[in-house]
Amino acid sequence: MDKNLKSYVKTYSNWYDKDKLGKLITDIDSAHWQQHEFYNAAGNTTGTRSGDKELDVAYSQSELKPYVMQRIWDGFHRYLSDLNFSWYAGWQGFSDVRFNRYKETRVMAEHCDHITSLFQGERKGIPTMTSLSLLNDEFEGGELVMFGDEVIPFKAGDIMIFPSNFLYGDLK
What we know:
Blueprint: E1 10-12, H1 18-29, E2 34-35, E3 38-40, E4 45-47, E5 56-58, H2 65-83, E6 99-101, E7 129-133, E8 144-146, E9 150-152, E10 159-163
Antiparallel strand pairs: 1-10, 2-5, 3-4, 5-6, 7-10, 8-9
């Protein structure tokens, strides 16, 4: 087992068909966008951590959603295959895809993806892996920062996967 935390951040290039990403962008333009909020399990409350600077989020019903969900599923399988942990058999699925939209000056507060509120229904538990993708890269800024100050590069069409726990908790 590799003890270097950076070894568990994997990016797979050109994971998505760029033409499909263009159509997906068009589809989600009309989605119901709302300001992102963090859940605080200790107080059973939700709220922003960046005030009115917090990004917007949406869940889309695009006709391309099955394609996106399948590619995420395939990405998780490849990730686990690459890690080759014979003892890790606990992954059983994932939550619905959420889209993040960053307008100029918008941010996502420092956090880790330990999102208990995702599992309030039939499934119980916490996320064990996070998947991120860029639908386009026609913007300035928006870097993914981990491990204090390291910018993790990835581009439109890529998928990035890493553990969802406090060891990766300085996402910005």
